[in-house]
Fold:
Amino acid sequence: MTTSPAYASPQTPRKIQRVKLGLLLSSLAACLMVSLLAIIIAFVLNTLGLLGDGLMLGSQQGFFNGLHFGLIMCLYNFVLFFITVPAAWIALGFSIGRMPHRRIAKRGPYMRWGAIWGTILVGGTTLVFGAMADGLMGGLGAAIIGCSIGAIAGALCGLLFYAIVKPADQLHDTDISVF
Structure:
């Protein structure tokens, strides 16, 4: 009975590289993207005159006050990086960080699960604090803007992770024959 060399065996597990780097950079980018998206949305809403007195809380009641509060919370996301970056790293690590090891090579699941976790983290946080600050309608307004910003930032982070790790390139079978 002859055994084939290790490099020719299809059963040898391949080590997936750059996963931790991808998770670190994606979580840092998530923190920055949430703040940048909130700045862009606040600028557009203020330009259109939909924010009333700018980002001054208390000028309106209920839903729009919660919307303002959610925008402000998203704007301060970068200031609280020592909380948001580890939370994003853990959430992404247990979702998209495990996908290359499960041999998932398509881009869609990475973006989808990044958007799901962005929605959960940002939307959940803005819902809880918005509801505490301005009741149920304020929490609803804060949750809608937080979920929107979190979904966009999460999808972009999933795309960034996919671009760094390149699972499709790492998971394909290598042909070592030269003739």
